[in-house]
Design brief:
Elements lengths: L9 H11 L3 H8 L3 H13 L6 E5 L8 H5 L3 E6 L2 H10 L4 E4 L12 E7 L8 H11 E12 L5 H22 L4 H12 L3 H10 L3 E8 L4 E7 L3 H5 L1 H8 L8
Helix pairs in contact: 7-8
The structure holds S-adenosylmethionine.
S-adenosylmethionine binds next to helix 1.
């Protein structure tokens, strides 16, 4: 198994991440030129969880995105469907609650988390809209969702430079340091095929979340989207809900 196709068959995606698991965090740091650490801090701030709350970190991989919550005394559940990634994570952080599960069919009860977050994972899910609905189901009314995902640089010349890096330099560098350089061809292709900031915000509200907003990081290489699950009083007001669903979501965090 080398790389997943853009059809994102779950077995291919999980096997690809099983393959890259041992060096995943190292390669990430190199390819993002250290930026991932800053992006992660911003995601944690956007989640805004407090001690005593329960957070689901979906597509958590080796748990690097889950660690700041655990370090802050927040009960974080790190869920992923690649057993290879989970094993590496559990070995490094035995204190974190790692759970095997598919984002499109989550093994959690309705309304069980104060917040859900997914970093660099939604793009890999075979049916991302179904995952957005599953995240909504397991979040408590009024709870928050935060997504970090690669996106589209907003400044056209920068977008050209970045696309060039993505399609040429990134697979070349990965071939030197990764055990599975082909998976970085998939990474580049999947980023190019992913919806831009506004389109993703529309998906989010289209699946029932409200108050979707986003913030661009590193000129739009990454976007952090945030949204809220309607509270019980919002649900009671079904008329308002229907209009919210189609509201434009161009707000900034
Ligand atoms: C690029 S890694 C991100 C890991 C981690 N969140 C981070 O920020 O480092 C993407 C992860 O998504 C997981 N993934 C992809 N599709 C999934 C699905 N349907 N259900 C659960 N995990 C999934 C992969 O197994 C992989 O570990």
């Amino acid at each position: 198994m080398n790389r997943a196709s853009l059809e994102k068959r779950p077995d291919e995606v999980a096997a690809m991440f099983d393959d890259v698991a041992p060096k995943y965090d190292l390669v990430n740091d190199v390819l993002s030129m250290g930026q991932t650490r800053r992006w992660r801090r911003i995601v944690v701030d956007a989640v805004g969880a407090e001690r005593g709350q329960k957070v689901l970190d979906l597509a958590a991989g080796t748990g690097t995105s889950s660690e700041p919550y655990a370090d802050a005394g927040i009960h974080v559940v790190a869920c992923d469907f690649s057993l290879g990634m989970l094993r590496v994570g559990k070995r490094r952080r035995p204190d974190i609650d790692f759970v095997a599960g598919d984002a499109t069919n989550l093994p959690f009860a309705d309304n069980s988390f104060d917040a859900v977050t997914i970093s660099f994972g939604l793009r890999n899910v075979s049916d991302p809209k179904l995952a957005l609905r599953e995240m909504l189901r397991v979040t408590k009314p009024g709870g928050r969702m935060v997504i970090a995902e690669f996106s589209q640089p907003t400044f056209a010349p920068w977008r050209t430079v970045y696309t060039e890096y993505l399609m040429r330099a990134l697979p070349a560098i990965a071939s030197k340091i990764s055990s599975n350089p082909d998976s970085y061809v998939y990474l580049a292709e999947s980023i190019r095929a992913w919806p831009n900031q506004d389109q993703l915000a529309e998906w989010i509200t289209g699946e029932g979340w409200q108050a979707a907003a986003y913030r661009n990081l590193s000129g739009g290489i990454v976007a952090v989207h945030r949204a809220t699950k309607p509270g019980r009083e919002d649900v009671a007001n079904t008329g308002a809900q229907a209009s919210l669903k189609h509201q434009s979501s161009r707000r900034t965090l």
